[in-house]
Amino acid sequence: MSKMDALRAMREARYAQDQARAAQRSAPPRVRPQPTPRPAEASTPPAHDAEAQPDDELCGHRNMSGRTCTRERGHAAKSHRYS
User: Fold this and answer.
1) Are 60 and 73 in contact (CB under 8 A)?
2) Nearest-angstrom CA–CA distance, 16 and 69
3) Which of 38, 69, 78, 79 could link 61 by a cystine bridge, Cβ 3.0 to 4.6 Å?
4) To the nearest whole number, what is the mean pLDDT of the chain?
5) Contact at 8 Å (CB) between 56 and 75?
6) Quick check: is 60 in a domain?
7) pLDDT tens-digit profile of 41-67?
8) Is residue 82 part of a domain?
9) DSSP secondary structure of 33-77
10) Domain residue limits at 9
């Protein structure tokens, strides 16, 4: 067997191996179990503290660290003031 014949045989063996692997992958995909729906909970509005929500309405926008904007609701300023 010559060098070229050996290379051709190796290439054909690799091709056959890849075809077999592809046939295994084409099997139907696994079906994930659907999550069970949660039972409906009684929705009660959250209690607001008097300190956190003063009489005048605030913007209430929250930033990534959890701070809330202290400007009035619907302010025209592009930026928020957090505290």
Assistant:
1) yes
2) 65
3) 69
4) 79
5) no
6) no
7) 666 666 555 455 555 788 888 888 888
8) no
9) PPPPPPPPPPP-PPP--TTTS-SS-B---B-TTS-BB-SBTT-S-
10) 1-25
Is residue 80 helix, strand or coil?
coil
Confidence grade of residue 35 (pLDDT, cut at 50, 70, 90): confident
List C-alpha distances in Å: 41 to 20, 44, 45: 51, 9, 12
In a domain, 61, yes or no: no
Question: Does residue 69 contact residue 77 with C-beta atoms inside 8 Å?
Answer: no
Calpha distance 66→83 (Å, rounded): 9
The residue assigned the tokens 């592809």 is: 22
- Backbone torsions φ then ψ of 65, nearest 5 degrees: -90, 0
The H or E element containing residue 18 is helix 3-25
